[in-house]
């Protein structure tokens, strides 16, 4: 069976989480907080939005793009606000799914719904 290729957004999140796990003793609390903030933002950015950012940056090398985007998201209020609203909406929908359908709503399902909504506009 062929394994599904992991999205670059998820690879980026994994790399940041590995940095937190491996380098936690070597980074300041401010850096730690910044990395956690970026992970929280990336959790609620769709793959399509992430791909668009990749195109905008025009970077061929993923490592450099990951670094550039991480630095950008640390100080970007727009994406912070968007993803905070999405997180709140997701939590409400997740609760609703659990109560009415007796199942959990996965983040990937929620992001898929957002992508459909964006492309219908």
What's the arrangement of secondary structure elements?
Blueprint: H1 8-23, H2 29-43, H3 47-57, H4 62-74, H5 77-100, H6 107-120
Helix pairs in contact: 1-2, 2-5
Tell me what you see in this structure.
With 121 residues, the protein is mostly helical. The chain has one domain (8-120). It has helices spanning 8-23, 29-43, 47-57, 62-74, 77-100, 107-120. The termini are far apart. The mean pLDDT is 88.
The best one-word shape is globular
- Helical fraction: over 70%
β-sheet strand percentage: under 5%
Number of strands: 0
Secondary-structure-based class equals mainly alpha
CA-to-CA gap between the ends? Answer: 36 Å
**Uncertain stretches:** none
**Quaternary structure type:** single chain
**Measured on Cα atoms, how large is the radius of gyration?**
16 Å
The overall pLDDT, averaged over residues, is: 88
**Biggest sheet statistics:** none
H and E order:
HHHHHH
The number of helical segments is: 6
Number of domains: 1
């Amino acid at each position: 069976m062929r394994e599904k290729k992991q999205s670059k957004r998820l690879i980026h999140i994994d790399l940041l989480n590995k940095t937190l796990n491996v380098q936690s003793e070597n980074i300041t609390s401010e850096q730690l907080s910044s990395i956690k903030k970026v992970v929280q933002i990336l959790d609620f950015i769709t793959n399509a939005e992430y791909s668009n950012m990749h195109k905008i940056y025009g970077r061929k090398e993923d490592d450099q793009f990951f670094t550039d985007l991480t630095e950008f998201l640390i100080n970007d209020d727009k994406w912070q606000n968007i993803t905070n609203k999405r997180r709140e909406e997701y939590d409400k929908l997740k609760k609703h799914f659990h109560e009415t359908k007796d199942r959990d709503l996965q983040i990937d399902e929620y992001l898929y719904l957002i992508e459909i909504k964006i492309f219908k506009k």
